[in-house]
Amino acid sequence: MTWVFDATPLIYLAKAERLDVIETLDEPRVVPEAVYREVVTTGVERGYDDARRIERTVEDGLVDVVAVETDNSPVATRLARHPGLSDADVAVLACAKARDAIAVMDESAGRSAAEVEDIETRGTAYLVLAAAKDGALSTEEGRDAVDAMINHGWYVAPDVYAKIVGKLESLGD
Fold first, then answer.
1. Does an H or E element contain 140, and which?
2. Structure confidence at residue 128 (pLDDT)
3. Which end of the chain has the least Cβ crowding within 10 Å, N or C?
């Protein structure tokens, strides 16, 4: 299964210094050029440490940067009209649709648009839970990762946070 990354999961995993959870996913793992430019190119220019971490993740081959054809894509054309989606969001969803892949994104507008287009999505919390389930993270490390992301501004509703923590604790049993 191919995984196509949007900006938010990469940024907050990088801020929490847990980009290693990406390794637990099957390959290929890709990031559209539009997302890379938004997250890494602009982020490095602004001096963001998380942008440099993501850049290293690409250099180390954990994710590949890919070109996404949006000009002749009916899906991209429809998505581009959605007022809640950025060009990078459109690239992620168009790439996922073209590759029959999973779009890794957190924003509700993107996930809603993905549902309409029949594109499977997963969020950042899923990645942390999957890494804990696979044993790549202990349940404590998973909880620390989620808490660190929240401390850096990642939003998760309180009821969803409680569910994430509950799932992590159930893995420790």
1. helix 139-151
2. 97
3. C
